Amino acid sequence: MFCSRCGSELITDAKFCHLCGSTNGTNEGNPTLSVIEAAQSAKKRPSSVLTFDDHRERKGQERRSRFGGKKPKKEKNEKVNEVTIQIGLIRLKDGELKVIRESTLPLKVTETIGAPELLQKGREKMVKFNKDLASGGGVTLLYPDRMEVKNLPGSTEAFTLNRYREELGKPYARITSYICKTLAILDSMFLKTYNSDDSDTELPSYEEV
């Protein structure tokens, strides 16, 4: 006789299979059928043996369900140092661009600030104490030598405050930039050209009759 569950041959006429412990009876007529049925039954039952990958995946799911996973760390923003410089005012006076005395004001900016941002912050600070700068055209940021601040002096490198300080060799507190009306700069250039043309023209001499 054969076990109807696992298909193994029974040693004795027992009420259960000595191999699988089945008590469902035996199959004397067709042992092959019993083997096939046992194989199909084994396929339906999930295997209790886990591979290493399955075990690791299951443990990972258990940990995630308990702790909810780790939150990604936020990147720390790099600290940007703020420094204080001086911002002054230049006006057209007697046909020349001249620094206005006692017009300088402290201006707090980042040490990596560029020319456009410095012009904007400097204008905002100056307008608070010089209302005429709020109207009448734009303004320009100037070096102490009246050259426009775009690149570093004598260079094609774009202006940044920290690089300007390195080239100048002064502490930030002793650096002064100037705000001037763009129209005043144009008038100054026109007057220089006009006066230069006049000096090159020789006036005719007249003899008294």
CATH architecture of the largest domain: Roll
DSSP helix count?
Answer: 5
Helix content: 25-40%
Overall pLDDT: 78
Please give the CATH class of the largest domain. Alpha Beta
Number of strands: 5
Distance between the termini: 161 Å
Main pleated sheet: 5 strands, mixed
The CATH homology group name of the largest domain: Phosphatidylinositol 3-kinase Catalytic Subunit, Chain A, domain 1
Poorly predicted regions? 203-209
> Structural class, from secondary structure content?
alpha+beta
As for the number of domains, it is 2
Share of residues in strands: 15-25%
Look up the CATH topology of the largest domain.
Ubiquitin-like (UB roll)
Rg, rounded, reads: 46 Å
Shape descriptor: rod-shaped
Question: Which key terms come to mind for this protein?
Answer:
disordered C terminus, alpha+beta, 2 domains, Ubiquitin-like (UB roll), 209 residues, rod-shaped
Give an account of the 3D structure:
The protein is an alpha+beta fold. The chain has 5 helices and 5 strands; from the N terminus they run ααβββαβαβα. It has helices at residues 31-44, 52-67, 115-127, 161-168, 182-200; strands spanning 82-93, 96-99, 105-110, 139-142, 176-181. Strands 1, 2, 3, 4 and 5 form a 5-stranded mixed beta sheet that branches. It is 33% helix and 15% strand. β1 and β2 (96-99) form a beta hairpin. It folds into 2 domains: 1-45, no CATH class; 82-200, Phosphatidylinositol 3-kinase Catalytic Subunit, Chain A, domain 1 (Ubiquitin-like (UB roll)), CATH 3.10.20.90.
